[in-house]
Sequence to fold (179 residues):
Amino acid sequence: MRVFGIDCGTECTGYGVVEIVEERRETRLIPIAAGGIALSKKETFPSRLARVYAELSGLLSLYQPDAVAVEGVFYSANAKSALLLGHVRGVALLAAANAGLAVAEYSPLSIKSSVVGYGLAKKEQVQFMVARLLNLPELPQPADAADALAIAICHIHTAQTASHQASGGRTVGKAGSPA
Fold:
């Protein structure tokens, strides 16, 4: 399974692509790509949204993920910031929908719990654990890319748990029969 994670932002929208592979009864997370779509405040907001859409659409076409995962809506004390972020999220969801991909949304608490084991972890802790889980030689940059990788990892962990529960807790072999 290949998952495209998106960390929506009004200044930088991070993306990360993670694949899970099984080799000799062992599963590994493989980092495929990560980066950020930096947005200039000199551009009009509609132009920035168009750029996010175009770049995400191109990346989705390039990496051919099986699913897209994004951070869900969170609460913000600043209504204007939350509204602007909502526009970016809408564009990201539209890019995924137009690519015909399933979209999963996760709360910041769920993402941090899945990756770090603690829902109130700091950004630096998330970056460190993402690098460790993906065997990266250094912390992913920008921080938005690390967050996007964390979102993709969260989706993979969630899918693995759901698959395990659906199989009644049994290990399932390649042909779908109990191992």
Notes: The first helix runs from residue 45 to 63. The longest strand covers residues 26-38. The beta strands are 2-7, 12-23, 26-38, 67-71, 102-106. Confidence is low (pLDDT under 50) at residues 172-179.
